[in-house]
Amino acid sequence: MNSTEELKNLNNISIVNPLVLETLEKLIEKNKTTSAINFESDLDKLFTFIKSKSLKSNEKLIKKFLDYGRSIELILDSYFPIIAKRLGDQWVSDEITFSEVTIALGKIQFLNSKMEHQYLANLKVKSSNTKILMLIPTGEHHTYGGIAATRKLRGFGTKPFLTLDYKNEELEDLLYNEHYEFIGISSANNFMVDDINKLTIQIGNIIEKKVPVVLGGNLVNTYKKTNEKLKVDLVSQNIEQVLIELNLKYNKNSLKII
Question: Cα separation of 74 and 65, whole Å?
Answer without folding.
Answer: 10
